[in-house]
Amino acid sequence: MVDKASVRAIINIFSTKNLRPAGARCVRTIFSNFFFRQYRAVFSPQKIPVFFVDHPLDASIPFDPAKVNTYLDFVAFWLRPLGTILKKYPETGIDPVLDFISSMERLYRFAAEVYSRSLSTTDRPHYKANFHFALIHALDPHLLCIPSLHVMIAVFTYTKYRKLLQSLGEEPGTEIRDGALAITESVLYVKQHSVNCIAAALYAMHRFDQTLFPAEEGKHFVTDLFAGDEKLPDRDRIRNYIIELYTQFCESGTAASMWMDPLLEFLKAMPRRSGRT
Q1: What is the 3-state secondary structure (H, E, C) of 63-103?
Q2: What is the distance between the alpha carbons of residues 200 and 195, in angstroms, rounded to a whole number?
Q3: Which residues contact 87 (CB under 8 A, 6 or more apart)?
């Protein structure tokens, strides 16, 4: 979903000569590596296997349709800060915003290195009681669960925006990181992802840019998940499991020939959806 602030950011990006080409490349990459890749898998004969990545801990997280607005905010979440920067720093902000957009485009291509080899899904509820969920089920074939782009984008946005502000001489507040935590939680509440997908996304983000997202940053991030939901019965077990799996991915990745190998090996051990060769 987009709001007025994110629409203004899009207009600013595409009306700025130095940003327009990067913006166009980013849009093209998003559609080719998220939507087109999934629909090609659905409608065309192909040999990419699909694995179920559910975990028993997912059942302890209640389905909460009210979280759908937070879930759908992930695009506007990374656009809004760029609009703020361009408005506040119309000249000096252009290069940092250009770097941000170019990095976002690379992030989609980076995640697609897994999707091109293995697809993944979860057993999400067939809930279509409101327009938002009907839209999700209509537009998202739900085949790109590991690593979760939702989580990668949320984490990338708060870490990159923090660095961007610091380059402009500002100290960031906590709001953007809190937003990333809320989006990460929402993917579990609306049952679009598993706890396994969170660990995989954090590992992918770590391998995407270890300077921006060192291994310890991922652990600290997980520790703050569900901080406002004291009624969640297995909150500590969920966080501990995600940290344990994330750590396992990071350790395995140090000896892997390709960064995505730990994720591909993990997927091979999961149940395979029938009908795929």
Answers
A1: CCHHHHHHHCCHHHHHHHHHHHHHHHCCCCCHHHHHHHHHH
A2: 9
A3: 12
**Joined tokens for residue 6:** 């994110």
Q: 232-271 pLDDT, tens per residue?
A: 999 999 999 999 999 999 999 999 999 999 999 999 999 9
Contacts by 39-43 with C-beta closer than 8 Å and gap 24+? Answer: 39/141, 41/119, 41/141, 41/143, 42/141, 42/143
